[in-house]
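User: I'm new to structure prediction. If I give you an amino acid sequence, what do you actually give back? Let's try with this one:
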Amino acid sequence: MTYQKAIAFIIKEQKDNLKFKCDFCDLENLSFDEYISHQENDCQSIEVECTACEYSVKRSDFENKDQHWCEKNLKEMILKLRKDLKEGKGVDKEKKEQIERLENYIKDYQRRIDDLQKRKENLEKE
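Assistant: Good question. You get back a string of structure tokens that encode the predicted 3D arrangement of the chain. For your 126 residues, that looks like this:
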């Protein structure tokens, strides 16, 4: 066996023996591919950032509307409720009130965004 083949063999063998541990949860003894897959898809403790509102939250809480409510999610809920109302599904006072409440959340959220942008502009001027 030549020197280069021996080095390649040792590197391959070491790669197969390397085990990784998730930094965010207690999962251990993962191969490199399992570790990457876990980090990208499965780990519920890792923090993710919403592309719509730039809010960071754990992946497990990302779909929880109480933890992460953003303009995008609220607009989707309003559109769904409006569609249901147009089709006559569940036309009742409670859903109309829910739509109004969600629209008020969006207005409040937009006001917060505008205030933050004004603050940022003022800080940049100083």
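You can read the tokens as a compact description of the fold. Here is one thing that stands out. Residues 68-126 form one domain.
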